[in-house]
Known about the structure:
Blueprint: E1 12-23, E2 33-39, H1 62-65, E3 67-70, H2 71-80, E4 83-89, H3 97-110, E5 113-120, H4 128-133, E6 136-139, H5 150-153, H6 156-165, E7 168-174, H7 179-190, E8 195-199, H8 204-220, E9 224-225, H9 229-234
Parallel strand pairs: 2-4, 4-5, 5-6, 6-7, 7-8, 8-9
Antiparallel strand pairs: 1-2, 1-3
Amino acid sequence: MKPPAVSDVARDLVVNETFGPTFQGEGPSTGRYAHFIRLFGCHLSCAWCDTPQTHDPARYDLAAEQQVLSIDDILSWLASTPAELLVITGGEPLLQPRALERLLCTIRERALAADIEIETSGTIPPTDLLTSAVTRFNVSPKLAHSGLRRHQRVRPAVLRHFAGTGKAIWKFVVQETGDLDEVQELVGTYDLKPVWIMPEGTDSATVLARMRLLAEPVLARRWHLSTRLHTLLWENDRGH
């Protein structure tokens, strides 16, 4: 899919939804009070994608799923509900780098969020301005079970770039214990650390079952295990 068309590259973002307060449900900030901006558009199409409304015309009316918000609109929303943690997610947020740069730099100038995380697939390198503005990149390289070809989901130069920022954590979506060998290959080849393993699933029963399946093998590799807290609390409801 082509990157979304932005009416003014410097001033507008194409957004799927904004929501919060809620909790960050994944990775090292799990459980933290947070606000989310979910950007529209993705150049990948994982078989198990949990946000298909950001890019999949077969299942969603994409015209109804996107809104062009000015940076001023987003800043006003944040000012009315101050964010301890702001999470920029998608879709793929790094498809809209210039407007995102301006947004995050202004958020920092006005102290509208203590911490900022960007969730990304690790296939598009961040700009220097974005790297300086964020607290953390939650980078989630896709595994073979995503249904994507390796050259689509593994971009060596981009992975090395993220690793070199010193601001990346690596969060792998896993379905079964055999997937951990694939994670190990990527981790060893590109020196990715720290590693978080997260079960794939959009309902609490699946998430819990896979966490129990993965717990001991993940411990044995001395990696971290992430839940999907929002799924355990609210199943697959949007806006959480």
